Amino acid sequence: MRLQSDFLISQDSRTACLWQSMINDQNRMMTQFKDAMAKLQTLGQDNLVDCSDVVPVPATFTGPITYPASFSESDVQIACTDQAFPSLATVDGPAPTVAPVPSS
Fold first, then answer.
1. Could you tell me which cysteines form disulfide bridges (predicted)?
2. How far apart, in whole angstroms, are the C-alpha atoms of residue 76 and residue 60?
3. Residue 10 near residue 20 (C-beta atoms within 8 A)
4. What is the pLDDT of residues 73-96, one digit of tens each?
5. Which of 22, 35, 58, 72 suits 64 as a labelling partner, its CA being 20 to 30 A distant?
6. Which range has the worst mean pLDDT, 16-20, 85-89, 99-103?
């Protein structure tokens, strides 16, 4: 699943390399997210609803990150050309399936 906001950040020339650098670096991603939320607090973002209390604590990431079965780097829209894209393994098995989205 791709969030449109994440996709736009990953493709923007100002943020693509930073976004790419967080692949396989969970600690960096968590630190960057925490810093961004702290900035939002000090910038007067008071119209947002804090849902922290209802979000479950995720399981610890044991890594490394992998592509789903049948996927590879050729399926990634890489926007950062200043650094090499990380080499990721692909999970063995059948291609994942997603139920069709009903028309609205």
1. 17-80
2. 25
3. yes
4. 999 999 999 999 999 999 999 998
5. 35
6. 99-103
